[in-house]
Amino acid sequence: MKDVKVLGPGCKRCVTTAEMVQGEADRLGVAVTIEKVTDYAAIAGYGIVSTPGIVIDGKVVHAGGLPKAEDIAHWLA
């Protein structure tokens, strides 16, 4: 199971990012837990200054803007 954190203030892009991650996980058959992190101090703790950010299993894989579906699939593989 992959532990995914979507970091951001809860904006539309952050919601869309979480939906994209869940959609790719479902398509690939990968079990994930998705946590939305909205606390600015926690977000800054990952070194992310542009949101949405994505952290998978403790590793920052994306920051700023919507990720590409093929990138999400690569990160979840």
TrEMBL record:
InterPro entries, A to Z: Thioredoxin-like_fold (IPR012336), Thioredoxin-like_sf (IPR036249), THIRX-like_proc (IPR005243)
GO molecular function: isomerase activity
Active site annotation, chain numbering: 11, 14
Thioredoxin-like fold domain: residues covered: 3-76
Keywords carried by this UniProt record: Disulfide bond, Isomerase, Redox-active center
Disulfide bonds: 11-14
Pfam annotation, one family: Thioredoxin_3
PANTHER family in the record: THIOREDOXIN (PTHR36450:SF1)
Name recorded for this polypeptide: Thiol-disulfide isomerase and thioredoxins
Biological source species: Rhodopseudomonas palustris (strain HaA2)
